[in-house]
């Protein structure tokens, strides 16, 4: 059997139409899911940061004798507050600086959650990538507030 | 003297007829294209040599030929007929593939789906010409431009067509620089070919880590018959991305895939024995394969142009041609065509995203077609 009769007899039209729809749907779903992944991860990270910050505060309060020099109150989730705390450290670095150097300074100065804080500052535009891991600082002036 | 004459009668020189000579010439052409022209040498050289080995005439019954039980080639061919080699190739392919471009441009995944239209249109064409449904499905999958996928599906549905289908699939993959550019130029304007792709966003390690798991769940759940291909593919990719089994990932993308490629190419080549291969039906398969591949390329490009009608950030429609899963040949061709239009246009990484999507798409299509034939 040949021709359109053969296509109809073997259910070819249906197979072609359904097959196309299935593969399109499958890849469209996969495409949608992967496009939402960054949002999903940032949501979890924010939630995780919120949950992990509470016990740290309690720990510091419960054992004040262990912290000879009180840690800067960097528990705020407001990027401008975080930027205010980190700006003095940035001023000790020569621009453009490596993010790893700023991270090390944050740790040396006992700033809590340096990784999350730096990610937040990067996201909010206070830290601006110059490529190759080098960054510059956009100060907390009117320009930062605009951004 | 009798002994000498008897020996002479058993030599390949005496037993050869014109069909053997034709196939030997085809084998040598493959080797020439692979060696001198650098057309997919990793595929064409094992296949070409396999064609030569498989078409040296011999006396049947000595356990020499690939279709004779107990022959060494027959045992090696087991990996083809069971679909073992394609699965292993997919494992290595997964361990090689970097999905960061695809994750950075998720919408390009749709081009990988669009390019699969060649498969379904060719399915209709093969049925129209009188092929049985299982044969038609095996021929249609050539449009995915994925050799291992074509061999896998044909081994499951129409094992008697493995030789012609595999040779057609690999030939068209090798002939990408000849087949695709005219179609790309025909369907795009110079202005469209000059479109630069927008900057990709940064892809986190977590995304790369989660993608193979999500891909497995979405695609294998949708078409469980694609598990033998997509399961190892995503597993290989997870080994690469998780960073704690680098040794395994390294072996998968080197020794394992190389071994499978050697045996796959050699035995597929050897399966093209003149008496099995040189039949009118093979010509139909080759013709339909060319149609499938051309339609796949065209549908990818056309779909990219349709997407541009609805998107603010335009994509270069040449990328649609990389939606077929011929990795990395079609991506390379897209890049070359883009550069010809504008030397500052670098499309390679973006085209690789479409290519990766094409691999997933064609394996999913194979699973879908297999499911249809089970019913």
In short:
The complex is a heterodimer of chains A (147) and B (375). Chain A has helices at residues 3-9, 12-62, 79-91, 99-108, 114-124, 142-146; strands spanning 97-98, 127-131, 134-137. With 147 residues, chain A is mainly alpha-helical.
Q: Which helices and strands, and how do they pair?
A:
The complex is a heterodimer of chains A (147) and B (375).
Chain A: H1 3-9, H2 12-62, H3 79-91, E1 97-98, H4 99-108, H5 114-124, E2 127-131, E3 134-137, H6 142-146
Antiparallel strand pairs in A: 1-3, 2-3
Helix pairs in contact in A: 3-5
Chain B: H1 2-9, H2 12-15, H3 18-35, H4 41-54, H5 72-81, H6 84-96, H7 100-104, H8 109-114, H9 117-128, H10 133-140, H11 147-157, H12 162-174, H13 176-187, H14 190-193, H15 205-222, H16 227-242, H17 246-270, H18 274-277, H19 280-310, H20 329-341, H21 348-374
Helix pairs in contact in B: 3-4, 4-17, 5-17, 6-11, 6-16, 6-17, 9-10, 9-19, 10-11, 11-12, 11-21, 12-19, 13-19, 13-20, 15-16, 16-17, 20-21
Describe the structure.
The complex is a heterodimer of chains A (147) and B (375). Chain A is mostly helical. Chain A is 66% helix and 7% strand. Chain A folds into two domains: 3-62; 71-146, Arc Repressor Mutant, subunit A, CATH 1.10.10. Chain A has helices at 3-9, 12-62, 79-91, 99-108, 114-124, 142-146; strands at 97-98, 127-131, 134-137. Chain A is elongated and about 85 Å long. Chain A starts with a helix and ends with a helix. Residues 56-74 and 142-147 of chain A have low confidence and may be disordered. Chain B has helices at 2-9, 12-15, 18-35, 41-54, 72-81, 84-96, 100-104, 109-114, 117-128, 133-140, 147-157, 162-174, 176-187, 190-193, 205-222, 227-242, 246-270, 274-277, 280-310, 329-341, 348-374. Chain B has 375 residues and is mainly alpha-helical. Chain B has one domain (2-189, 200-374). In chain B, helix 5 (72-81) packs across helix 17, helix 10 runs antiparallel to helix 11 (147-157) and helix 11 runs parallel beside helix 21 (348-374). Chain A binds chain B through residues 1-4, 6-7, 10, 12-13, 15-20, 22-35, 37-38, 41, and chain B through 102-103, 106-107, 109-110, 112-114, 116-117, 119-121, 123-124, 127-130, 132-133, 136, 201, 204, 206-207, 210-211, 214-215, 218-219, 222-223, 357, 360-361, 364-365, 368-369, 372.
């Amino acid at each position: 059997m040949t021709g359109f009769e053969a296509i109809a007899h073997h259910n070819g039209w249906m197979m072609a139409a359904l097959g196309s729809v299935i593969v399109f749907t499958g890849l469209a779903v996969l495409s949608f899911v992967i496009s939402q992944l960054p949002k999903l991860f940032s949501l979890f990270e924010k939630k995780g940061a919120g949950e992990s910050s509470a016990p740290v505060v309690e720990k510091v309060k419960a054992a004040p004798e262990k912290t000879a020099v009180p840690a800067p109150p960097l528990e705020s989730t407001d990027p401008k507050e975080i930027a205010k705390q980190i700006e003095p450290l940035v001023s000790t670095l020569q621009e453009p600086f490596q993010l790893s150097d700023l991270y090390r300074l944050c740790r040396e100065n006992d700033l809590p959650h340096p990784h999350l804080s730096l990610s937040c500052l990067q996201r909010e535009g206070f830290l601006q990538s110059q490529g190759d891991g080098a960054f510059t600082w956009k100060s907390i002036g009117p320009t930062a507030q605009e951004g | 003297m009798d002994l000498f004459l008897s020996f002479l009668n058993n030599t390949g020189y005496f037993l050869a007829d014109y069909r053997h000579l034709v196939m030997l010439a085809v084998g040598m052409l493959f080797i020439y294209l692979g060696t001198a022209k650098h057309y997919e040498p990793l595929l064409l050289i094992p296949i070409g040599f396999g064609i030569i080995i498989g078409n040296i005439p011999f006396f049947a019954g000595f356990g020499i030929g690939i279709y004779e039980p107990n022959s060494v080639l027959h045992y090696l061919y087991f990996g083809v007929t069971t679909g073992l080699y394609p699965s292993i190739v997919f494992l290595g392919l997964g361990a090689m593939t970097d999905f960061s471009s695809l994750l950075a441009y998720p919408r390009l995944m749709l081009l990988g789906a669009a390019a699969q239209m060649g498969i379904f249109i060719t399915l209709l064409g093969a049925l129209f010409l009188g092929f049985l449904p299982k044969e038609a499905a095996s021929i249609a999958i050539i449009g995915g431009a994925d050799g291992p996928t074509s061999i896998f599906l044909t081994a499951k549905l129409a094992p008697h067509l493995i030789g012609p289908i595999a040779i057609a699939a690999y030939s068209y993959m090798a002939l990408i620089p000849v087949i695709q550019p005219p179609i790309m130029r025909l369907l795009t304007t110079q202005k469209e070919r000059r479109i630069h792709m927008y900057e990709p966003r940064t892809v986190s390690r977590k995304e790369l880590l989660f993608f193979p798991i999500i891909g497995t769940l979405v695609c294998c759940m949708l078409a469980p018959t694609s598990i033998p291909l997509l399961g190892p593919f995503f597993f290989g990719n997870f080994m690469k991305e998780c960073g704690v089994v680098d040794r395994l990932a390294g072996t998968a993308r080197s020794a394992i895939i190389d071994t499978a490629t050697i045996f796959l190419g050699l035995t597929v080549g050897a399966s093209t024995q003149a008496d099995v291969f040189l039949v009118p039906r093979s010509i139909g398969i080759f013709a339909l394969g060319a149609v499938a591949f051309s339609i796949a390329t065209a549908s990818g490009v056309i779909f990219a142009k349709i997407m541009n009608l609805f998107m603010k950030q335009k994509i270069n429609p040449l990328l649609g041609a990389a939606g077929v899963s011929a990795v990395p040949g079609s991506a390379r061709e897209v890049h070359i065509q883009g550069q010809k239009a504008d030397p500052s246009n670098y499309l390679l990484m973006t085209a690789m995203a479409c290519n990766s999507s094409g691999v997933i798409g064609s394996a999913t299509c194979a699973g879908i077609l297999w499911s249809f034939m089970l019913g």
